[in-house]
Design goal:
single chain; alpha/beta; TIM Barrel; 10 helices; 10 strands; globular
Amino acid sequence: MRHVVSLYNGIEMPLVGLGVFKTNDQKEMDNAVRYALEAGYRSFDTAQMYQNEHILGASLRRMDIVRSDVFLTSKLDNPNQGYDKALLSFEESLRKLKTDYLDLFLIHWPGQKRSRLIESWRALERLHKEGRIRAIGVSNCMKRHLQWMAEDCDVMPAVNQIERHPLLNQNGLAQWCTQRGIQVEAWGPLVRGSFDFPQIREMAARYGKTPAQIILRWNVQSGYAVIPKSVHRDRIFENIDLCDFALDEADMRAIDAMDTGGRTSFDPETFDF
């Protein structure tokens, strides 16, 4: 299994990244980033909405690593959508993250207003064309949102970051994206910590792995990147250690069959702001 995925524009993105949602203490962030780098992570995922870009930026500056060796992702917050506001808030993200470019910048939520989404995307297209962002994408977009973009925009998203875990596999959407060259990245892959399922525990015992590793392997073996969140050293190391085993097809299908449509956050089909 390759440790990176190639986006349609040739940019390579690590298959496993560290999510930093709700990590808002500087010491805790410093430790998490240090553990992640020791474990082999090179991808870090934040967002304007998380209000911790400045904390992650400070942590990365403290570490002995070259900026070009890190894949850094942030996301446009809902109040910052619209062409001019998106451009301004991007500059603020760079300032907080203490960098002069981003590897990936996403629109965090599409909402229900087509014109607002398109205006925001055109701002990202401009920043990408100017070389300020290496790849641009979206988060939580459903097919109809992506179809709006296909009809009205010049560049399609390189990534769609979606909620994906055993209780919400979104296989139809994920496969639709893959067929169109849009890389799927799973947020919340461990169901925000609520992943104590008997069938997963049974698989973990059989493969000699942890339940978290089984779920993350299911995602990456399906071709999807993952950004598990943790601040604990053992879990950070565990979550990237996915390459020395493979799930058989029966187990892959069994995890697919666990889907209940259960979301842990807003439904993109109806959520607006």
